[in-house]
């Protein structure tokens, strides 16, 4: 798919994400917006998946390890055709198939239930190992947060993936620099990220998480790597696309009020109109 079409889809995903969170009066907009372009690229340009054959054993897998950012993933799954867009506004409502965190038993298109940080990447490693043991060609992708990697389980999973030479595993780090209580540097300070991942036996690629050309280059390189897992450190902006949410830690887990929702949608509508003029 052409870059412009991906940009249009991503802008629509942002609008739907903000609408879902506003309607539910709860959610995590900051990290959902920072990951939107990554979700969009994965499902529309990268992964071998088909909503008409969603349980195909040869499909690629995706695990959202930072499960709280699932509103944007739900919007992408609906856009891809896994379920009707009409369902999106039931997000976080009683009886919905769209829970506040991914639930594989309820939502079509999901490969893993997640929410407890650090566990999703471990499940993805298991899926990658399963593919190797069964001589399958599918690839496994997982998105982790740069705050999530405070969890020791993340590094244990990477040690195992490196030891087992899981070159069918691609870990994407949503490197927006903020987590629940502040900047990642203030809380634990994980930098330099690239050197840490390399020391755990991973092939590291840096990318702009909001530029589809950069993402394409990164994912193409990842597919050439043999004998070790790949980590793509995607530099992103928390709250990307909504001016008052960008780089603002207070939007980690807060829903916009009516006035804020109106402003956000106006900004995204203008962005969409600009894309249509290209």
TrEMBL record:
<comment type="similarity">
    <text>Belongs to the transketolase family.</text>
</comment>
<protein>
    <submittedName>
        <fullName>Transketolase</fullName>
    </submittedName>
</protein>
<feature type="domain" description="Transketolase N-terminal">
    <location>
        <begin position="8"/>
        <end position="267"/>
    </location>
</feature>
<dbReference type="GO" id="GO:0046872">
    <property type="term" value="F:metal ion binding"/>
</dbReference>
<dbReference type="InterPro" id="IPR029061">
    <property type="entry name" value="THDP-binding"/>
</dbReference>
<dbReference type="Pfam" id="PF00456">
    <property type="entry name" value="Transketolase_N"/>
</dbReference>
<dbReference type="InterPro" id="IPR005474">
    <property type="entry name" value="Transketolase_N"/>
</dbReference>
<keyword id="KW-0808">Transferase</keyword>
<keyword id="KW-0479">Metal-binding</keyword>
<dbReference type="InterPro" id="IPR049557">
    <property type="entry name" value="Transketolase_CS"/>
</dbReference>
<keyword id="KW-0786">Thiamine pyrophosphate</keyword>
<dbReference type="GO" id="GO:0016740">
    <property type="term" value="F:transferase activity"/>
</dbReference>
């Amino acid at each position: 798919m052409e870059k412009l079409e991906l940009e249009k889809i991503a802008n629509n995903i942002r609008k739907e994400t903000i609408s879902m969170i506003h309607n539910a009066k709860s959610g995590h907009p900051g990290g959902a917006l920072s990951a939107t372009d990554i979700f969009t690229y994965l499902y529309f340009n990268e992964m071998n998946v088909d909503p008409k054959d969603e349980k195909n054993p040869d499909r690629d897998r995706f695990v959202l390890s930072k499960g709280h950012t699932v509103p944007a993933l739900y919007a992408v799954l609906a856009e891809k055709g896994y379920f009707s867009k009409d369902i999106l506004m039931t997000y976080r409502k009683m009886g919905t198939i769209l829970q506040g965190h991914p639930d594989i038993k309820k939502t079509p298109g999901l490969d893993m239930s997640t929410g407890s940080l650090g566990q999703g990447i471990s499940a993805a490693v298991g899926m990658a190992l399963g593919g190797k043991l069964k001589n399958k060609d599918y690839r496994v992708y997982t998105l982790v947060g740069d705050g999530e990697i405070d969890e020791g389980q993340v590094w244990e999973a990477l040690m195992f993936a490196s030891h087992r030479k899981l070159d069918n595993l691609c870990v994407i780090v949503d490197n927006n620099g903020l987590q629940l209580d502040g900047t990642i540097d203030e809380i634990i300070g994980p930098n330099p990220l690239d050197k840490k991942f390399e020391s755990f036996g991973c092939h590291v690629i840096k990318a702009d998480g909001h530029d589809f050309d950069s993402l394409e280059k990164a994912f193409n390189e990842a597919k050439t790597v043999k004998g070790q897992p790949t980590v793509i450190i995607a530099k992103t902006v928390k709250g990307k696309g909504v001016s008052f949410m960008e780089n603002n830690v207070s939007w980690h887990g807060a829903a916009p009020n009516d006035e804020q929702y109106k402003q956000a949608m106006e900004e995204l509508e203008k962005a969409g109109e600009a894309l249509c003029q290209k």
